[in-house]
From TrEMBL:
It catalyses: [GlcNAc-(1->4)-Mur2Ac(oyl-L-Ala-gamma-D-Glu-L-Lys-D-Ala-D-Ala)](n)-di-trans,octa-cis-undecaprenyl diphosphate + beta-D-GlcNAc-(1->4)-Mur2Ac(oyl-L-Ala-gamma-D-Glu-L-Lys-D-Ala-D-Ala)-di-trans,octa-cis-undecaprenyl diphosphate = [GlcNAc-(1->4)-Mur2Ac(oyl-L-Ala-gamma-D-Glu-L-Lys-D-Ala-D-Ala)](n+1)-di-trans,octa-cis-undecaprenyl diphosphate + di-trans,octa-cis-undecaprenyl diphosphate + H(+); Preferential cleavage: (Ac)2-L-Lys-D-Ala-|-D-Ala. Also transpeptidation of peptidyl-alanyl moieties that are N-acyl substituents of D-alanine. The chain crosses the membrane at residues 49-76. GO terms for cellular component: outer membrane-bounded periplasmic space. It comes from Lentibacillus cibarius. This is Penicillin-binding protein. The keyword Oxidoreductase does not apply. SUPFAM superfamilies: beta-lactamase/transpeptidase-like (SSF56601), Lysozyme-like (SSF53955). Residues 859-881, 946-978 are annotated as: Disordered.
């Protein structure tokens, strides 16, 4: 059918030619002369001959034309025999499947720029293209666009002849429809077969699509050379923006003509160099000449008037060329690279999911993973996604300025390092680098970050996301203290001894030390954390590490860089990681405390839509329960003290908004290679790290600030600036909400148990908050009254019921049983248990004597045997010791005369007693370890009692009378003790 139309078009053109020929004045004159007959008469013979010859060639020509047409048609059919018949859906998919650059956006839809690509293209609808542009393109590329059915036969014939004869000047002969087919369905191959298919498909395309649809697709496909930054551009919208800095709907006539002329030779006519920036005057001139040609064609085709033509010619378009501007990668290097990486991962998972694969499938198949990574990268650069990040533009821009102008990073380091490739030493100079990140707690939105100082080759390495560093003591809250709170192993007030301790390890002994050296005695867990003591943290971690707190707590908080079985290493409890953690991971984990123990994964990409506006990805928070609200609050409350009276008190002088309820933790890695501070308030979490990329000591004796203060000052400047921009988010009035189940209790500072009378007497009662589930229930037993008693000839520690008059010592002393239970009995010097705080009260506590036995005295429940052989000699009373083995001493009683009441006059741990009254009655009782008294000994009369007195009193000195008196004395034993 199409071929028949082609023949009819040819016949129509021939008839039109002869009609014009007949109407020409010379033709009319020739015809009038011919009608007189003179010519025929004089040349009859010649006419017949010539006519026969012409007729012969006409017949041969017609036959040849039909033969050639048949051969051509056959040849054409052979060229397209393998071309499938394409339906509407197939052709629609092909012509609209052009590469379109994906775009990046800040939060609130603020444009960042395009994804870095080999070709930049933005789609535009035809209604958003100026009429001047449409007319310029049609006049230049396809003057019969609105009339033809996909092809222009004379142009095709011309092109075929030029191709066959290898003419030096060859015209394309292609309509806009054909060019669209070539670009979107076929290839750029130069051959009769490709051309034949192009013709066939172009005619079919015209059947399915109207002219506006074809023109719109063409305008979005065609290449336009370079933009001001040197990027390859395609599509009329991208060209208008890249060359003039305006939309395709805004171009004037001269600009439209200039743009329409570029596709013929984009690299030649473009005004910009491959590297960016304007070409020289000579390089710009071809494009200007081409613009004039386009204007001439528009004028000839009637699209513009002569006045418009002349005005456009005189227009100085060179003043409209846009200035070279930094690309998004140049302006936001850390953001664009990281956003593209995160988006690529999301698209990779999306594409795999469409094909029925999960990310687990990809992780278990390296080839599959690589395949979808390549596909995701290609889709990101070609599919025109809109990638919406969570980044607040103003906050992010301000962060970059602060870092660029910050004066307290510290000095550059110059020295030799080992080259991993060659193994040789090489000299380098490196700056102290930094990484920081600001996260909204409840949503996980990354509001802003610092990727580094944007210097030299480090600019493409993101220290907030990519760098893995030892997080030092910032590990303590998330891996040691909070898990121990959660499991009830400790509470904020739990006393822990900061004393020297060596642990047995497979590689030998491990003796942790505090930074700055020294020990601090028994301190509450709260103080150990806010002053960042290492030894207490190691002791706590040692109690919980067997339960693998990494798997139970760290991994659910997004920290996945800890190696298998590394949880068994004691040093991990204070941040001694093998591979380290990123700033993002560390800060994100801290945000869990602000979220009442729920972890919300931080994210940089909020949403991705395709070019049709369909949502490909949208982040939805999925909180994970890690800690109870009570544990989260306890940890926050302790970390408040880090700023109030601990290692980060310097911040108090740096924060602009002093009412904010901040809690946080400092951190220093081994050999002072890293400095950290992570802070949280009810709304946001912010963390900053500084250190050399190749880890070196960052201390600086000549600096006005310590390494920790230099990092904290930077943190404060970033927080203050963000608070100025968004005070409602950054500087909330509300405090951390105290959940139910948190109670306040008093406890003994020595043991952490309920206070005893002795602990109160010693002045060592403290008060703190507890998870109600883990308040102390046992009474303190860390102290005892006195030091020891002599039992069976040996010094034995006194018990609670041991009569105090027989106890030797200075009053209150440590209970040796308590010391042994806690392992403190192994200390060379128990006085190291005394902390510096309230030390005077601690120093009043006696230390057990070295010769005191830890022997436990068994309580048989029986009274001890009475002492025997009591006798008086001079002013001394002597007796034999009791036969009971648990006796600790003896009490001596006196009566004024026989048969009168006895009263206690003294006690002794020996078997002698000196009395002063030379006329009295005496007896002795043995007292055991548990306070039980024996029966009274035989009475001893001292002095001269007359017979009459004896008779009056009824006194008898015989044994029976003495036994009766003993019974009476026993009845009064309680009063005698007083």
């Amino acid at each position: 059918m199409k071929f028949k139309q082609f023949l009819q078009t040819c016949i129509h053109k021939i008839k039109s030619f002869f009609k014009k020929l007949r109407e020409h004045p010379y033709s009319k004159k020739a015809i009038s002369v011919w009608k007189t007959g003179k010519i025929q008469q004089s040349s009859r013979i010649g006419y017949d001959v010539i006519w026969n010859i012409v007729l012969f060639f006409l017949i041969i020509g017609v036959i040849g034309a039909f033969f050639a047409g048949g051969v051509g048609a056959g040849y054409f059919a052979s060229l397209v025999k393998d071309e499938p018949i394409r339906d509407y859906e197939n052709m629609e998919q092909n012509i609209y499947n052009y590469e379109e650059t994906s775009s990046l956006y800040f939060a609130n839809d603020k444009y960042i720029g395009d994804v870095r690509s080999d070709l930049y293209r933005q789609e535009v609808t035809l209604k958003n293209v100026s009429e001047n542009l449409k007319n310029a393109v049609i006049a230049t590329e396809d003057e019969y666009f609105n009339e033809h059915n996909g092809i222009v036969p004379k142009a095709i014939v011309r092109a075929l002849v030029q191709q066959a004869t290898n003419a030096p000047m060859q015209s394309g002969g292609s309509t806009l429809t054909q060019q669209l087919v070539k670009n979107q369905i076929l290839t750029n191959e130069v051959s009769f077969e490709r051309k034949a298919k192009e013709i066939l498909i172009a005619m079919r395309l015209e059947r399915f699509f109207d002219k506006d649809e074809i023109l719109e697709a063409y305008l979005n496909v065609v290449p336009y050379g370079r933009d001001a930054s040197g990027g390859n551009i395609a599509g009329i919208q991208t060209a208008a923006q890249g060359i003039f800095g305006i939309d395709a709907s805004e171009v004037n006539l001269a600009q439209a003509a200039y743009l329409a002329g570029l596709p013929q030779s984009p690299s030649y006519y473009t005004p910009f160099k491959n590297s960016g920036g304007l070409k020289g005057e000579e390089g710009i001139q071809p494009g200007l000449n081409r613009m004039k040609s386009v204007l001439e064609r528009m004028h000839e085709a009637g699209y513009i008037t002569k006045a418009q033509f002349e005005n456009a010619l005189s227009y100085d378009i060179t003043t409209d060329f846009t200035d070279e501007s930094p690309s998004p990668v140049e302006k936001y290097p850390y953001l664009t690279v990281m956003a593209q990486q995160r988006a690529k991962g999301i698209i990779q998972e999306h594409l795999a999911k469409e094909d029925g694969y999960t990310m687990e499938d990809l992780q278990n198949d390296d080839k599959l993973m690589e395949d979808y990574a390549i596909r995701a990268d290609r889709a990101l650069r070609q599919n025109g996604y809109e990638i919406h990040t969570t980044i607040d533009k103003k906050t992010h821009d301000t962060f970059q300025k602060i870092v660029q102008n910050y004066e307290h990073f510290g000095p550059d380091w110059t020295g030799y390092v080992t080259d991993k490739e060659t193994g040789r030493k090489k000299k380098i100079t490196q700056q102290i680098q930094t990484g920081g990140i600001l996260i909204e707690n409840k949503t996980g939105r990354i509001i802003g970050f610092v990727g580094g100082r944007n210097s030299n080759k480090d600019s493409q390495f993101n220290f907030a996301f990519q760098s893995k560093r030892s997080n030092g003591s910032t590990m303590k809250p998330i891996l040691t203290y909070a898990p121990a709170f959660e499991q009830g192993v400790i509470q904020p007030g739990t006393p822990i001894a900061d004393v020297r301790k060596t642990y047995s390890t497979p590689s030998g002994g491990y003796t942790p030390h505090n930074y700055g050296g020294g020990y601090h005695g028994i301190v509450p867990a709260r103080k150990a954390l806010y002053n960042s003591y290492n030894i207490p943290a190691i002791k706590i971690y040692d109690k919980i590490r067997g339960q693998d707190p990494v798997s139970e707590f760290l991994e659910p908080m997004g920290i996945t860089s800890i190696r298998d079985n590394e949880y068994t290493h004691l040093s991990l409890g204070i941040g001694g990681t093998t591979d380290g953690v990123s700033v993002e991971e560390n800060v994100n984990a801290f945000a869990t405390f602000a979220n009442q123990g729920k972890f919300v994964d931080a994210h940089l990409i909020e949403q991705i839509t395709d070019k049709e506006g369909n949502v490909v990805f949208e982040y939805n928070p999925d909180p994970v329960d890690v800690f109870s609200p009570q544990t989260a609050y306890l940890t926050v409350d302790v970390m408040r003290d880090v700023i109030d009276r601990g290692t980060a008190t310097y911040l108090q002088s740096q924060l602009k908004y002093n009412h904010v309820d901040w809690a946080g933790k400092t951190g220093t890695s081994q050999n002072y290679k890293d400095a950290w501070f992570v802070g949280v308030n009810p709304n946001v979490s912010m963390g900053v790290w500084i250190g050399y990329r190749k880890g070196k000591n960052i201390r600086c004796p000549s600096c006005s600030l310590s390494y920790s203060q230099r990092n904290e000052k930077l943190w404060a400047q970033l927080v203050n600036a963000a608070s100025d921009i968004n005070p409602e988010l950054m500087a909330p009035e509300q405090k951390f909400e105290r959940p139910g189940g948190i109670v306040t209790r008093s406890y003994c500072a020595i043991s952490g148990k309920l206070p005893s009378d002795l602990c109160k007497e010693a002045g060592l009662i403290k008060t703190d908050i507890f998870n109600a589930k883990y308040v102390p229930t046992e009474k303190d037993d860390s102290l005892i009254r006195g030091s020891y008693v002599i039992v069976d000839g040996k010094a034995v520690l006194a018990a609670e019921n041991t009569p105090k008059e027989f106890v030797e010592g200075d009053g209150i002393t440590f209970n040796p049983e308590f010391l042994k239970r806690k392992g403190y009995d192994q200390l060379n010097n128990p006085s190291t248990l005394f902390p510096s705080t309230n030390r005077k009260a601690w120093e009043k506590i006696g230390l057990p004597q070295s010769d005191v036995s830890n022997k436990v005295v068994e309580n048989d429940g029986k009274k001890p045997s009475a002492p025997g052989a009591v006798k008086a000699s001079g002013s001394k009373l002597t007796w034999n010791q009791s036969s009971s083995s648990d006796v600790v001493g003896y009490r001596i009683y006196q009566a004024k005369k026989p048969n009168s009441s006895f009263r206690l006059i003294g006690n002794t741990t020996g078997t002698k007693f000196t009395f002063t009254d030379k006329k009295a009655v005496y007896r002795v009782k043995a007292v055991d370890y548990f306070g039980l008294e024996s029966a009274a000994s035989k009475e001893v009369l001292v002095g001269d009692f007359s017979k009459s007195e004896n008779e009056k009193s009824g006194h008898s000195n015989n044994a029976a009378e003495g036994n009766k008196q003993n019974e009476n004395a026993n009845k009064n034993s309680e009063s005698e003790k007083q």
